[in-house]
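Recall the central idea of this unit: under ordinary conditions, the amino acid sequence of a chain determines the structure it adopts. In this exercise we apply that idea directly, starting from the sequence alone.
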Amino acid sequence: MIEPFDDEYFMKLALKEAERAFEEDEIPVGAVVVAKKQVIARAHNLTEKLTDVTAHAEMQAITSAANFLGGKYLKGCTLYVTLEPCVMCAGALYWSQLDRIVFGAKDEKRGAGKVGDLYHPKTKITNGIMENDARKLLLNFFAKKRN
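Accordingly, the structure predicted from this sequence is:
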């Protein structure tokens, strides 16, 4: 049986958030938080708009999901994010106690994987979902910035 609400389905929603960031001249990273196959939070980078270096898509999504659930822990939830979380976001994700983190493209320069395992030991990590789409959006953004 085909599962309509699989990792690719939710990553496409995160990519839509990343496209919104691109349109707003933000680094195009998008995120969604899912609980019981329902999206409970959507976010994208807002560092320029908010003039806040901590306003990454993941941080915005954590806050929104916690508000939706009425508590600080995101047990039973999955975060879909288009780019591998940075060290700052990985720390926040650790404390949120997500069940899963699914990301698209690896961040070879600043990704949390560069410094070791920073995620909660019970959090399952899946990467490479729609990686090419996520990477292409980022490359297009930075090419536009250089021109």
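Residues 7-23 form the longest helix (17 residues).
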